[in-house]
Amino acid sequence: MGKVDLQVQLGPLKLKNPVLTMSGTFGFGQEYGQYYDLSALGGIIVKAMTAQPRLGNPPPRIAETPGGILNAIGLQNPGVDVAIAEELPPLQDLRCQGTLVIGNVSGYSFDEYCTVTKKLSYSGLVDAIELNISCPNVKGGGLAFGTHPDTVYKVVSGVRAVCDVPLIVKLSPNVTDITEIAFSAAKAGADILSLINTLSGMAINAKTRRPILSNITGGLSGPAVKPVALKMVHQVSQAMDIPLIGVGGIVSGMDAAEFLLAGATAVGVGTANLMDPLGALKVVQGLERFLEEQEVASVSELIGGLIVCL
Amino acid sequence: MGKVDLQVQLGPLKLKNPVLTMSGTFGFGQEYGQYYDLSALGGIIVKAMTAQPRLGNPPPRIAETPGGILNAIGLQNPGVDVAIAEELPPLQDLRCQGTLVIGNVSGYSFDEYCTVTKKLSYSGLVDAIELNISCPNVKGGGLAFGTHPDTVYKVVSGVRAVCDVPLIVKLSPNVTDITEIAFSAAKAGADILSLINTLSGMAINAKTRRPILSNITGGLSGPAVKPVALKMVHQVSQAMDIPLIGVGGIVSGMDAAEFLLAGATAVGVGTANLMDPLGALKVVQGLERFLEEQEVASVSELIGGLIVCL
Amino acid sequence: MLREDAEKIQTAIIVDNRPLVSDVYHLILKAPKLASEAKPGQFVMVKVASGLEPTLRRPFSLHRLDRRAGQVEIIYQVIGKGTDILTERKPGEQLEILGPLGNGFCLQEGKRVGLVGGGMGIAPLLAVAEQAVQEAIEVVVFLGARTGDYLLAKEEFEHLGQVFVVTDDGSVGEKALVSKPLEEYLQNQQLDLILACGPTPMLKALAGIVETQGIKAQLSLEQRMGCGVGACLGCAFPVKAATPEGYTYKRVCHDGPVFGAHEVLFSVPKEVTKQGGCSCGQS
Amino acid sequence: MLREDAEKIQTAIIVDNRPLVSDVYHLILKAPKLASEAKPGQFVMVKVASGLEPTLRRPFSLHRLDRRAGQVEIIYQVIGKGTDILTERKPGEQLEILGPLGNGFCLQEGKRVGLVGGGMGIAPLLAVAEQAVQEAIEVVVFLGARTGDYLLAKEEFEHLGQVFVVTDDGSVGEKALVSKPLEEYLQNQQLDLILACGPTPMLKALAGIVETQGIKAQLSLEQRMGCGVGACLGCAFPVKAATPEGYTYKRVCHDGPVFGAHEVLFSVPKEVTKQGGCSCGQS
Ligand SMILES: Cc1cc2nc3c(=O)[nH]c(=O)nc-3n(C[C@H](O)[C@H](O)[C@H](O)COP(=O)(O)OP(=O)(O)OC[C@H]3O[C@@H](n4cnc5c(N)ncnc54)[C@H](O)[C@@H]3O)c2cc1C
Ligand SMILES: Cc1cc2nc3c(=O)[nH]c(=O)nc-3n(C[C@H](O)[C@H](O)[C@H](O)COP(=O)(O)OP(=O)(O)OC[C@H]3O[C@@H](n4cnc5c(N)ncnc54)[C@H](O)[C@@H]3O)c2cc1C
Ligand SMILES: Cc1cc2nc3c(=O)[nH]c(=O)nc-3n(C[C@H](O)[C@H](O)[C@H](O)COP(=O)(O)O)c2cc1C
Ligand SMILES: Cc1cc2nc3c(=O)[nH]c(=O)nc-3n(C[C@H](O)[C@H](O)[C@H](O)COP(=O)(O)O)c2cc1C
Ligand code: FES
Ligand code: FES
């Protein structure tokens, strides 16, 4: 690689470059590790882990939409214990090479979030934990933890208390005011915020008159959501001072640069991995090329560099 | 046209077919009326009207995004008085031919909504009024009227009191729980709901480091948003019993059919008019062809016909 | 930086792309590496257009592997956006493909192998039939389709072994499901192994037949896919397993597309506790 | 059902599409109806690909109208997604275009007309130069570009009238802005009318010059567009008007793209009261 400095300081985390792969689109790294050397990445956020193994939703789980996809995987994962025993150890080499390994924690109850976080944090196998609070709060009547400031505060502070590594909180875009949620998460102790998770959506086959996904609804991701994600990243970065991971529809170095300009310190690549096995690698390379072309010596110069004058 | 029955009963409104053109994408019908006979449409929802003339936002006002566009027109319109005097009279012929003419009312204050509605309603020039409550509530601190159940209730009931024609309330998708807003609007007297208005979004030119829109943010529409719109239409139609106009990313007869299956009684075509001057006409024709192919005698059979069984 | 599997990302040249029937096309690709490495029953993910639309690649089985000519063949039906765009691609143009993917069929266990194909499921059976004959394994072929026109590659199969055909409209062969000639055949004759591809109801019926008769069978399954490489868990298919629920999900793209008939579960037991809906819709 | 303007939706055949310079292409289209009806200064909206991507059509001025051959020509610079796709389209292929759109230049007022073009703004001036010469109007041409290579159609202009050229790098002509040779020319000679197209700063400078000198001028403007037909108000450009604010917005697609130099406002006064942001972002 060239002379451009790609390192960024994401709150307490030092990244060799600002490109992370997003949870659920990269498994535990094994498959894409056959395609390229994962140490080219800033970090890997692995598939969501829950307290118990989860089978996930019946198929179909994926629907294509204009410029995006819907998914309803349903958090299929082997459970945090198996993940700690089998999935995370093979990734430890990467950490020596400066590529972060980040756990993604999901749950259906306050206790589950805490249990999983505690185990992961104590395992010593992850550099940070990302909390996915877009899942339904069963005790709270099924409304997601991530859509109300109070539950966000409660979950994040609960998890914070048992988490010995930096804590990233991943925000749902399906809210009236994302800054309100971001404030709660920050106040409760989040070190970093990642945004956005998927938009709630649905696809229908008009001929069969049925939803395409067995789950009826799914989460929308991919290029189609980029404008929504950019706006939320910009809005939160204007409203408060917390490091952000910008996520949503990034497929190129230019897309990544847009998120950095909007105020993110790092970016996450999700659907692009599905579109192309080299998707995340191409974002790293594209970002480096973009900086070279623009004669920017360090990627940090882009962060929050949007010029807004009316 | 063929033997398929395209008529639908949209609450108090009888439509010759379920396809409406959406506000802001069809002007006052004049331009597209040069391309085709507008009586082919179920109805036309004209450009937003405000109490005073509004210049709108500085350019650029349009940005293209993957599968969609962002717009920040800024409600440019000649004001309701000029609209009544000059823009609406030429459309009256269409009403004789059974194509509805629907006014779209915007405002920046409670009073403005009521003033504009009263004038339009008393003009006798529109078959119904669509209330666009996605605009900022200046007195309420800039938060949109349409994002909080209480303000929705207040505005809709105020407008309802001065509105002698059927009242359509257009919902913003930028909310945590669309059914909550829908309930408020219905309780306050809305006859019909249209959803969705645009998603809030942003586009950046990474090379110039500037937002593409002069307004920085804009409203996302077009095929990219279809999954979000479909989901919200389905969700509201499951939660309550009020006629719905389904809007968001419709470009084909098949898209229209999907919204009808999800629970809408009529559909709105917006961005498709920009993509192709015959956009809305093609939706009407495509829907008719779809029904013929599927051997459905009446379009009403599709409404809410989604088959959901796990 | 790149590792071995990156070689699966290949630029093929279109040699031919024309309709066999109105809505079924035959695509011939120059792709020497793929032709030499792929096994029958494996598949490729095709990027039908450059740019972002459509979002995902499309999975197609390899219909034929011509190692000498460095060519592979695909037969595809025009279903929607992706296959529609594919019909417009012309000879001489480049096509980005990802493959070979998945496990493929395994012929080891048979001396006389039955190949059962329904509809587009006929496509991948030609490659395995050709390999079988090369390995001196006898093939007996059972094909079913809507009409005679859709009995794809019937002539090619007839050069390789005995062929039984049925159609939905009786235009060629008996008006029946493909399970019928198979069951009739099995009344007098024996098959060591059955390899099948076709619509899920056909495979389900077949799984019942082979269980009753105690014949080993491999089924090639289809599922909507995301990544195609095993990472996203998008292409789940339920298989029997010693979990508390009695099943688990395997990945068609990575653990399949070929599964043992005995392990496939065609319908998932209704979940007792359906969790509340999630704000992201994902779970 | 269809009305007159529907004829503006035309299927053109690509006759040629090749680079003039690395990032500037010359596109020749067979489109007899358009060629016979369009006026210089009008434009077309080109659907660069079938399907949904990119969402919008791309506006391009008509560079040349060859009524006899039934052909129109466009010169386009490769900027982003749309023009990139356009470079891939090949002779013989169809291209859906919408046009002619907009008002076009008006030559009536001049006996000796100055044509001022900067960068890609040179493109539409050839059509109007050719028409002027046909109508026995004298043209004096002022062209400015990055380098000599970008002085598009310089030779063609030289057949039609006197041509002055400048470049940003001095590779051809003087290293100057195009306003320089124009001002020098005006010191000794007279022009009845100026028609101009180019980057906004150039047009702004020009508007100043013609105002000082009291020359009539028409400027062809650019703006990001939605519909191209006047309905969406996407392509607003501020012009002076007797509103309380002193200006109003006109539509480049429908009221333009050609505007009188005296009416165009190049920067909007900062609005005193900026309304709060809207939940849809639209207002
Ligand atoms: C392993 C495998 C092998 C296949 N082999 C063949 C083959 O040899 N010949 C052939 O004609 N078809 C084959 N299919 C089916 C083929 O992939 C689909 O018909 C095709 O993807 C439809 O794409 P579309 O864009 O035209 O349809 P659309 O309906 O527009 O596609 C929308 C989305 O759904 C997916 N999809 C739709 N139908 C199917 C399906 N049946 N299976 C999987 N995904 C689907 C598409 O890939 C796309 O992501 C195979 C599928 C799999 C999984
Ligand atoms: C009336 C008119 C006439 C024009 N004539 C010519 C011509 O003859 N030759 C030529 O090379 N260019 C011309 N342009 C500019 C041309 O339209 C843009 O360069 C082109 O749209 C860029 O498209 P893209 O997809 O490559 O770029 P992108 O940046 O990917 O386009 C994104 C969006 O922005 C719009 N856009 C980007 N730049 C411009 C621009 N300068 N003006 C208007 N819209 C823009 C695109 O149309 C598209 O909607 C003209 C523009 C207008 C308004
Ligand atoms: C197939 C798939 C599975 C996902 N699974 C998870 C998950 O388990 N946990 C989570 O927090 N986000 C999950 N996501 C969301 C992504 O991590 C990411 O936030 C989202 O896709 C937006 O980014 P993108 O547009 O780059 O894909 C998933 C997304 C996809 C497409
Ligand atoms: C250029 C443009 C202008 C719009 N102006 C208005 C408006 O004035 N009032 C309104 O209620 N909605 C307005 N909308 C929103 C549309 O009416 C419609 O709700 C939205 O575009 C979603 O539908 P679509 O995806 O079919 O475009 C506008 C949309 C566009 C693209
Ligand atoms: S398609 Fe992603 S795991 Fe199979
Ligand atoms: S582009 Fe729609 S009004 Fe000009």
Quick summary of this structure?
Chain A is an alpha/beta fold and 310 residues long. Chain A has helices at residues 80-87, 92-96, 110-123, 149-161, 178-187, 226-239, 253-262, 271-275, 279-293; strands spanning 8-10, 13-15, 19-21, 43-49, 62-65, 68-71, 100-105, 128-132, 167-170, 192-195, 199-202, 204-205, 210-211, 217-221, 244-247, 266-269.
Describe the structure.
- The complex is a heterotetramer, with 2 copies of chain A (310 residues) and 2 copies of chain C (283 residues).
- In chain A, 30% of the residues lie in helices and 21% in strands.
- Chain A has helices at residues 80-87, 92-96, 110-123, 149-161, 178-187, 226-239, 253-262, 271-275, 279-293, and strands at 8-10, 13-15, 19-21, 43-49, 62-65, 68-71, 100-105, 128-132, 167-170, 192-195, 199-202, 204-205, 210-211, 217-221, 244-247, 266-269.
- Chain A has an 8-stranded parallel β-barrel, surrounded by 5 helices. A 4-stranded antiparallel β-sheet of chain A has the order 5-6-14-11, with no helix packed on it.
- In chain A, a hairpin with a 2-residue loop joins strand 5 (62-65) and strand 6.
- In chain A, helix 3 (110-123) packs parallel to helix 4, helix 4 (149-161) packs parallel to helix 5 and helix 7 crosses helix 9 (279-293).
- The longest helix of chain A is centred in the C-terminal third of the chain and has 15 residues, at 279-293.
- Chain A is globular, with a radius of gyration of 18 Å.
- The mean pLDDT of chain A is 95.
- Chain C has a domain at 3-101: Elongation Factor Tu (Ef-tu), domain 3 (Beta Barrel).
- Chain C contains 6 helices and 16 strands.
- Chain C has helices at residues 32-37, 81-88, 125-134, 154-158, 179-188, 200-213, and strands at 9-21, 24-30, 43-47, 58-61, 64-66, 71-77, 94-101, 112-118, 138-145, 162-167, 174-175, 193-197, 216-220, 236-240, 247-251, 258-260.
- The radius of gyration of chain C is 19 Å and the shape is globular.
- The two termini of chain C are 35 Å apart.
- At the A-C interface, strand 5, strand 6, strand 11, strand 14 and helix 8 of A face strand 14 and strand 15 of C.
- The complex binds flavin-adenine dinucleotide (2 copies), flavin mononucleotide (2 copies) and FE2/S2 (inorganic) cluster (2 copies).
- One flavin mononucleotide sits between chains B (22-25, 47-48, 71, 73, 75, 104, 132, 170, 197-198, 221-222, 225, 247-250, 269-272) and D (226, 232, 234, 282).
